[in-house]
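Please check what follows.
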Amino acid sequence: MMDIVLENVTAGYGFTPVLDSISLKISEGERVLVAGTNGSGKTTLLRVIARLLPFDGRVTYGTSDSGSIRRKELASVVSYMPQNGETYFDYTVEQTVMLGRYSHMTGLLASPGSEDRKIAAEAMNRCGVYELRYRALNELSGGQLQRTFLARAFAQQTPFMLLDEPENNLDVRHNSELTDYLNEWASGTTELAGASVHNTVIAVMHDLGQASLCLERVIALDKGIVAYDGSINDMVATGRISDIFGFDVTGYKRRESKLWNLCK
């Protein structure tokens, strides 16, 4: 089994700790929602797993330790889709998606081949940005930018996909398509070092209703520690969801759903 294991991981920014001695195991094939209030450590957790942030403790990817795995090797295991607000270079859509192919390129210059271009085109088509492939990122709407980053993650073809608020800025239709994409992808496998590894998605999402359509396990964070680790259904059925967010989430969602009762 290809698992990602965190042991006593502490991480933060400067002198401000965010994650506090977290230990977790995420097995291949799981569909994981990372939930919690703003500032609880959700993005920090993803950035630690993607090895984009220094940390104390240990993270292993299968039999490889974070301290010994090379960046290019890690890029064949884990893909990371950041929030829109993170800094990005002034590339075109096509150039951005092609970055996802880096770990698959060989040779001194590591330039994309025909297979890389084919896979990048398929990812852009899947995410509805192929017609925008020559546009610069700074010319895109928030939703178009989000779908570009999603296409880059798909093009990377890794068995573990980390998504930080992938539903941000997407309209209703594209949110529905996102759910379909994730279900389709998570039901498949990815070839890694000659073995088929069951795909695993780890996503930060705020719309719990949408998350429940494609994710199953919840890791809920509160002040840098794991406050809940179990199924989405159990978190809601037991009322733990209101404890985690500190207010009557179920009551709010029931009031919100009155709009859809108007439909005939």
About this structure: Residues 87-156 form one domain. The first strand starts at residue 3 and ends at 13. The mean pLDDT is 89. Residues 142-156 form the longest helix (15 residues).
